[in-house]
């Protein structure tokens, strides 16, 4: 135990004495927290719907509805257009009639007008725009306007009262929801972000552990270390130190962001609740299962590092492990919208995936207490098994140099030793 404590202390010192580690952690935490304080000092009411407290409107300033409107042109060759319909569907647009196609096209081309429409028939039109963005909804809105024009013209010819017909089809319906347990839609996005976060921690710190082990072999430092301590103490010290470093970094950054949003939530008008309003039970489950998943993979990463003698071979030795992590990661994300499905339920009990799927089920679905306990027991037993297996591979591979040792060959040799 004393040897383990020495290794742990040394590895922790390596993390926390690293200026890069500390500076990046603090900067990201401060940047995230600072951005969430912006609505207190900057008017972001267009997005949040909340005015900066204490900031009065200056004389002569524009009212909220008096912002500058976009300029659109139209040419009605079919004689069916009704400007009041366009004004209703395009509230932020000032419509002007073009003299001809050439004038409309040139105005759009020289950007004196943002867009233009030519109505060529009762159900046909042409759209003119200089640069069409992916979020351009103008054609869809104008198509709806064309349908209204057509209904108005048809009803007039038939002598029908369009307002009565429209009122019948558009009768207002009032409904209320009573969510008895979890609202999956509201909880989806913060679960999505947390799954990505724990995946990044596992890959980043796992790779660091593997490289650290390989570095000690490549510079022969391991030969000195094993004479003063045991391979088990070395591996467990590295893994636990990495867990502490990862938890510190994640807790500081995530804590600063969540706390800052909690303080400024009313200034955001609750707009970021889907990302940052995370219930305490989900955070606790995320911390417990995320730490368990990290330890499970970290022991395996340490063993993979002991199989090679050069750092450039680390990615080759850990290729299968990375593939497993990636497959689990994508399966977890793809199943987030179906947390009551059989696939994610199975994944929530497997040690390779429970670190991300179990807290997602708790956040967005219904999970019996026995399921949580069983999943954690399986994960804890798997951590012990991964630690024991990793320690044996580490002990067997630390003093072997030259070509990388294949995982299959290492497992066969361990079985022979028994």
Could you walk me through the main structural features you see in this protein, from its secondary elements to its overall organization?
The longest helix has 38 residues, at 231-268. This protein starts with a helix and ends with a helix. It has helices at residues 2-16, 19-36, 45-48, 83-89, 101-109, 138-158, 162-169, 184-218, 221-228, 231-268, 273-276, 280-306, 314-317, 319-334, 342-347, 354-364, 369-397, 407-417; strands at residues 70-76, 93-97, 115-121, 124-129. Mean pLDDT is 83; it is low at 56-62. α2 runs parallel beside α10 (231-268) and α12 runs parallel beside α17. The radius of gyration is 31 Å and the shape is elongated. The protein contains 18 helices and four strands. The protein has a four-stranded mixed beta sheet with strand order 2-1-3-4, with helices on both faces.
């Amino acid at each position: 135990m004393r040897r383990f404590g020495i290794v742990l202390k040394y590895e922790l010192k390596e993390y926390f004495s690293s200026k890069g580690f500390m500076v990046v952690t603090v900067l990201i935490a401060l940047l995230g927290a600072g951005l969430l304080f912006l609505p207190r000092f900057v008017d972001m009411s267009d997005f949040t719907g909340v005015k900066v407290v204490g900031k009065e409107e200056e004389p002569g300033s524009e009212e909220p509805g008096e912002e500058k409107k976009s300029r659109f042109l139209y040419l009605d060759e079919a004689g069916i257009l009704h400007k009041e319909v366009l004004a209703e569907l395009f509230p932020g647009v000032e419509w002007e009639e073009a003299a001809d196609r050439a004038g409309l096209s040139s105005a759009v081309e020289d950007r004196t007008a943002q867009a233009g429409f030519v109505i060529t028939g009762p159900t046909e039109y042409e759209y003119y725009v200089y640069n069409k963005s992916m979020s351009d909804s103008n054609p869809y809105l104008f198509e709806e306007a064309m349908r209204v024009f057509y209904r108005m013209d048809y009803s007039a010819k038939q002598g029908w009262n369009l307002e009565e017909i429209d009122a019948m089809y558009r009768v207002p319906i009032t409904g209320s929801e009573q969510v008895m347990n979890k609202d999956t839609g509201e909880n989806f996005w913060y679960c999505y972000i947390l799954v990505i976060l724990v995946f990044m921690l596992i890959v980043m710190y796992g790779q660091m552990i593997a490289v650290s082990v390989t570095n000690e072999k490549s510079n022969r430092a391991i030969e000195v270390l094993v004479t003063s301590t045991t391979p088990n103490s070395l591996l467990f010290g590295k893994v636990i130190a990495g867990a502490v470093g990862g938890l510190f970094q994640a807790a500081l950054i995530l804590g600063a962001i969540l706390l800052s949003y909690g303080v400024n939530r009313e200034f955001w008008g609750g707009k970021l609740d889907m990302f940052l309003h995370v219930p305490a039970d989900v955070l606790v489950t995320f911390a417990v299962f995320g730490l368990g998943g990290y330890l499970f993979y970290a022991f395996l990463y340490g063993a993979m590092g002991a199989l090679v003698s050069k750092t450039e071979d680390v990615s080759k030795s850990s290729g299968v492990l990375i593939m497993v992590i990636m497959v689990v990661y994508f399966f977890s994300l793809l199943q987030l919208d179906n947390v009551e499905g059989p696939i994610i339920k199975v994944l929530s009990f497997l040690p390779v995936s429970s670190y991300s799927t179990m807290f997602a089920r708790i956040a967005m679905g219904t999970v019996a207490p026995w399921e949580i306990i069983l999943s954690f027991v399986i994960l804890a037993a798997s951590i012990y098994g991964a630690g024991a297996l990793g320690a044996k591979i580490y002990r067997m591979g630390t003093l072997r140099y030259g070509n990388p040792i294949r995982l299959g060959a290492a497992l066969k040799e361990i079985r022979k030793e028994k």
